[in-house]
Design brief:
The structure holds 2 protein chains of 2 kinds. Chain A is mainly α. Chain A folds into 2 domains: 1-51, no CATH class; 60-281, MetI-like (MetI-like fold, Orthogonal Bundle), CATH 1.10.3720.10. Chain A contains 11 helices and no strands. Chain A is flat. The two termini of chain A are 25 Å apart. By secondary structure, chain B is α/β, with parallel strands linked by helices. Chain B folds into 2 domains: 11-80 and 158-169 and 189-259, P-loop containing nucleotide triphosphate hydrolases (Rossmann fold, 3-Layer(aba) Sandwich); 88-155. Chain B is built from 8 helices and 9 strands. In chain B, helix 2 packs across helix 3. The radius of gyration of chain B is 18 Å and the shape is globular. The chains are: A mainly alpha, B alpha/beta. Chain A binds chain B through residues 167, 169-170, 172-179, 183, 187-188, 191-192, 194, 272-275, 278, and chain B through 57, 60-62, 78, 81, 83, 85, 87, 89, 91-94, 102-103, 105-107, 134-136. Residues 22, 26, 28, 46, 48-54, 216 of chain B line the site of adenosine-5'-diphosphate (ADP).
Amino acid sequence: MSIAENQPLYDADDLKRYRAERFERFGKWLLPVAVLIAMIWLWDRIVVWNEIPHFILPRPGLVLETLIKDWPMLFNALLVTLQITMMALAVAVIGGVGLAVLFTQSRLVEMSFYPYAVILQVTPVVSIAPLIFIYVDSRTAGLLICAWLVAFFPVLANTTLGLNSADHNLRDLFRIYGASRWQTLRYLRLPAALPYFLGGLRIAGGLALIGAVVAEYVAGTGGIGSGLAFRILEAGYRLNIPRMFAALILIAVTGVVIFAGLSFLSHMLLRKWHESAVKRET
Amino acid sequence: MTTPPLGHRPPVLDMSNVTKTFNGDVVALRDMNLGVNSGDFISLLGPSGCGKSTALRLIAGLSTPSSGRITWAGGQSENDLGVVFQEPTLMPWATVAQNVWLPFRLKGQSYASVKDEILDALRLVGLEKFLEAYPRELSGGMKMRVSIARAMVTKPRLILMDEPFAALDEITRFRLNDDLLRLKAKIGCTVIFVTHSVFESVFLSDRIVVMAARPGRVIREVNVDAPYPRDEAFRTSADYAALCRQASDALHEAMGEHA
Ligand SMILES: Nc1ncnc2c1ncn2[C@@H]1O[C@H](COP(=O)(O)OP(=O)(O)O)[C@@H](O)[C@H]1O
Ligand SMILES: [Mg+2]
C-alpha cells in the first residue's frame, strides 16, 4: 500500500495510451514531411528516368533555383496578391459582421436582403469577374471586389448563426434585468457569436486568396503591380515552366500560412473558455 | 437576521386569478392565486407540465397573463428579481466574478463600484477563491452556486428558482439545500422555488403550493410549520416524515386525477 502511494503505478492501459499519444504527437508532423520528401524524390526520378525536358517538367532542384533567382520579382508579385487578399478579407469581415448584426437586429432587413446575399454567393466569381472589370476602372478595386465577393459570405452566414445561437435562458435573464438592445448585443450575442465568426473567418481567409487569384487571371493585364497569378500566366506564355512551379508553390504556401495564422488567432481568442480550444482533461 | 412570523410580513407580490393559455386552447395555468410576503420561501410542487415554469415566467414578466393580474406591492421597481434556472446559465466567456457582476453591469454600474457586493455574494456560496475561474473549470454544483450568487447579489425583492438542483446528484443536492437555507437566513431573501421533489420542498419551504396538470392549476397549499434553521436533525425528524407524507399525498392526488 505504502509503495503504491509513493510511486505511480502504470498499467497496460496507461502504456497503450502513452504510446498512442506519442504516435499522434510525432506522426502528425513526421508523416506528412516524409510523404513530401518521397514525392519530391519521386518527381525528380521520374524526370530523370524519362528524360523529360525542363520546359515540360522541371526537376525540383531547378524549381528551387528559379525560386531563388526570381525571388525579387516573385516576392513583389506575392506582396500584391497578399495585399488584395488581406484587404478583401478585412472588408469581408467588416461587411459580413456588419450585415449579420443588421440582420439580427432587424428581421425586416434580413428578409429583404438575405436572398441576395445567397445569390451573390452561389454565382461563380469567374462568371461575374469579367463584368466587374468592365465597369470598374481601377484594377485594384476590381480585384478587391472579386475577392470580397467570395470571402464575405462565410463570415456573414457564420456570424448570423452565432448571433442567434446565444442561450435562451441567458436571453431571458437579460430581458429580466432590462438590458438594452445594445447591451444584449455587446455582452451576449457578440461573445456567443465569436467562435462561429472565427470558423467563418478561417474559411474566408482561404477564399479571399482564391478570389484574388481568380480575379487576377480574369483581369489579365500585367506590368508593374501584377500579382502571382499574373506571373503564372505570363510564365506559361513564355514556356517558363520552372517559374510557374515556383509561383504556384508560393501561392500554396501563402494559403497554408493564412489558414495557420487564422487558426492560431482563433485558438488564442477562445482558449480560455471554448470547448473547441480546450484540451480534454479526462 | 430572523424572519418575522407569518402574517407580520409585508406583501411583495400578488397573483389573482391568473390564467395563461397558449394558442387559445392549451391551458398552461388556470386561475392561480398566490400571495407572496417578504421572507417567504414558497415551493411550487407538481408533476411536469402542471404550469410551474409558466407561473415563474409570468411573474418574471417574460410572458403576460391571458387573464388575471399580477401586482407588485408598491409597484414594479428596478430591482425586483433574481432568477436561477435549471441549468447554471452562465456566460462561458466570462469569469465567475464577471458573471456575478452581470446584473449590476446591465444597470450601468462599474465592476469597481460593486466589487464588495460581488465578493460578499461569492463568499456566501463558498466560491470566493474562484473569482477568476471560467465556468468550464467548475463542477456542476459550483456552477449552480455561481448562478445563485448572481441571482442574489443585487438583493432583489424576489428570487425565482426553476428546478435549480434537478440536474445535480443527490449528495450535491442535499448540500445545496442546506446552503440555500443558510443563505436565506443570512440575507433574508424571498424565494419561489419550483421542484418536483417532495423532500426538497418540505425541507426548504414554509409553504408548499401543490399543482396538478392538464389544465395546470393549484390544488392545495401545505404549510410547513417547522421553525428555521433546519438541519440534518430536521431531515430525520418525525415532523419531517409527517410533512413529507402530507405533501406526498397531495401530490398523488394531483397526479391521480389524471393518471
Ligand atoms: N410556449 C408554449 N407554447 C405552447 N405550450 C406551452 C408553452 N409553454 C408551456 N406550454 C404548455 O403549458 C403546460 C405547462 O408547461 P410548464 O409551465 O413548462 O410546466 P412545468 O414547468 O410544470 O413542467 C405544458 O402542457 C406545456 O406543454
Ligand atoms: Mg418546468
